[in-house]
Each structure stands twice: as C-alpha cells, then as structure tokens.
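Pair request: fold both.
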Amino acid sequence: MALTASEVNLALPQIWDGVSATCVELSPAHAVAEISLEGVSLRPGGFIPGPTQFAAADVVLWFLVFGAIGRLEPMALTSELSLRFLRPSVGTRLFARATLDRAGRSSVVGTTRVWTDDNEAKPCSVAQGTYALPR
C-alpha cells in the first residue's frame, strides 16, 4: 500500500521537529509541499528569499523519497541540489512539486518546481537534486 501525504504529516513532528513544510500530495512519482512563510524575513520588495526557495526544493525532494521507496526514511540525505531562479518570488504562500527522475537502491533523483500563491504555471525557481538512501 502506498504511503500517503497524511501519514507523512502525522510522522513529521516525531522525525523533524520544527520543519516548516506540509506534504500536500504524495505518490510514487511525485510530491507537493506547502512551505510556511511564518517567521520568514522577506527581502526588500517583498521577495521570498532564495534560501527559503532552496529549502522548499529540498524538503519536497525528501517527501518524494518517501513516496518513491514506499516508506518513511528520515535518514535519507541530500547529496546534491542545484537551483535556478527564474523570476522574483512574491506571494503569501510557497509551494514546491517534485517529480521522480530515477529511484535506485542507493539514491533518488528528482526535479522540482517552486511557485507562489497557487500559480504553478509560473515557477519562480526550478531545481534538480539527489537524495542518498542509508545503507
């Protein structure tokens, strides 16, 4: 049986206290996260800072790992992540979608899109990353 977004959200407080993301969707091939902007210091012009977008891409890839391998694996770790900014990120809500590129025995590779305020058609950044799975 596939792991669900609700199961991930229920487990989050036990495996990563203080994480500011919620798993919105989860399947073996994709994950969607909403990132809380509470407490985020916006850049001049109201722009969501780059490190917050990077964190969004990172956490949604972590969620994708769970869906791809079919279980929670808290010790899956980022081994590589490259982010490209496409446009200024202005909004009140931040989302990220990861799609699976490859899942193997030792790693999971995915591509992400980060956007604001339910406007997925206009991403503010894109990324590709790899998560290493524990032995």
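--- second member of the pair ---
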Amino acid sequence: MPVHDVGTSPVPATGPYMITRDVPGREIDLARNPDFRLWSAAAQPGGFPDRMVWSIGLTPGQEVAAIEAGRADWALDPPPGYQSLNARYPSQVHLNPLPGISYVAFNVTVPPFNDLRVRQAVSLAADRNQAVSALGGPGAAQPTCQILPPGVPGYRPYCPFTVDPGASGTWIGPDLARARQLVAASHTEGMRVVVWAHQWDGPLGPYAVEVLRELGYRASLTVASVPAFARNVNDTRRQVQASVGTWVADYPSASDFFDLHFQCSTFVPADPADTRSGDFFCDPDIDRQMDQADQLQTSNPQAAADIWAKVDQEITDLAVWVPFVGLRFADFTSARVGDYQYNPIWGILLDQLWVR
C-alpha cells in the first residue's frame, strides 16, 4: 500500500478525539470527535477532556515552569530535577516502571566470562545505586539483579547477588569481598577486558568498566556507532568479551526478553547479520522451558508466568547478562489534574485525565 505525507490536513479520526488544528512546529489541537461512538469501554473508552492542546518547542525546564504556573497540565519530556519536584509536589509526580533494563552482557564463550564465577562476581560487585545516580537518579532507574522488570508477567523479585540476600528479592548493596573471592578462584585477575558500548549508551559503559577495574581487571571501553557495534559484538569471530545495553520491551511480555536474547537460535556463528545477541548463550533445557511458556501463553497465562519466573531466575543465576537497573519514567502533572492512569507501553492515558 503506498504511503504519502498528508501534511497539515487532518486525517479522519476513529477514536474519541480528532485533530482540529496544526501549526507546524508550534501547536496541535485536538477536540472531541462528533462521530465517535463508544463500542467497548475496555478497548476504547470515551475521553474526559473536551479539548487537548499540544504546545511544541519548549525546553524541559520551561515545560516544568508552565506546569507549576498552571499554564500546562503535563509534559511529554521527563521532568528535570525529579527529586526536588517530588519534595515540593508529591501528589503531582507519578513514578512508573518501564518494561526495560540497563545491563552488561557477556560473551560466555571467551575468557574471562566463559567462567561462571567471573560473571557472578561482576553482579556481586556492582554498586547499583551508583548506576541509578549515573542514569539520573530514582526518577530514571531503580536497582535490579534480574532480567524481567516489574509489570511484566512472570516477574518475581529475585536478587541472589547482593550482600545479605533474602526472600524479598531486594538488592541491598554490593558484596565486593565475595566477588573478589570468586575472581581469585577463577585465576583471571589482571586480564585485559574490553567493553563495547553504543554511542548513545552514555554513562553505562564507563560504569561497567569501573566495576571490572574494582575486581582487578585491566578494563577499557570502546564506543561504537550502532552498525559498528552490531558488526563486532554479534560476530563470534571478533570475540568481543562484554558489551553494555538497554532493552525496553515492545510489549510487556517475558518472551520479548528471553526469546529474543537467550534462545539458542538467537545467534549463528560467524554471521552477525543473522545474530540478535552477542552473548552466544545456549542452554537446550532453558530453550525447552521457553518454548513451553510460549505455548501456554494464550491458554494458561498463569502457568506461562510461572515458567517465565523460573527461566528468569535460572538466567539471572547464570549471569549471562548482569542487569544494573530497571528503568523508570516520571510524569509531572498540574495540581488540577485527576484520574491519573499509566500504561506500561503507551504511558499516561491523556484522554482519561480529569482537569478541574
């Protein structure tokens, strides 16, 4: 089907709102669609506001100022200075988990990370509070040890890689002493390790290098473009030892984490174009569990979630990836907004807000 740019002429609307005005680069106005008929409150509910106006071109700081002054009700950009805002407007700051994590991934086929003890040592040594700070504070991230983030079916809090691990599954703090014991037992201390990062990974790469240096490795960082990263990290011949990344699921399903990154079929030796995950991990037994969970997903979602939880714990124990943080998003709304609702995929449900 051919696709063409409709420009600023509004297209017909099927939902509760339609575009009534478009000033390119400045403003988009939406008003109630007179032809909308509620057919399912669960699938497509009616909206509450009579009109919504999107102003474009403000900086995040200007957006916050407009909300504080009552000239705006919400901003698409995450608010800067989350902690200060939360202290002043606790009922107006809404903190939500995203279905995503930031992590370091290991090539499990090459030294030193072909040794389970080394991978587990990195997870034990990581001070995840430092990772949270590096990514912008509690408004942007929260410590985690596991692959699945909150809100994804199968999520059960789990963290064996912390000082004083307990049944709560909460990360408490790093255990550097135990981590160094594992490294000493592996006889890999002092090895040269190169960590690869995308050009947009920001502080994640330096943070992973810092953790490795604390464990006695001669660690360094290579920052690459997205194509160069894929060509090298996903090629078994290049033997890239470690890489950092961020993964946000397309939809809140455990399969969007495990099937995409940990199945034996996720890589083809010497073929980076047909490889999705440069950890080169393959466990046939875990593969069978993932296949079983996929089959049960529609007929028995609770049974599927139980299997995904088990897979999450098994892969966390194997430390193929070492998650540092689960991602978060902070919304800042005006004092006159009520009925705040958040969807883990679509974000704030603007049409369900009450504006007094």
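Observation on the second member. Residues 9 and 87 are 43 Å apart (CA to CA).
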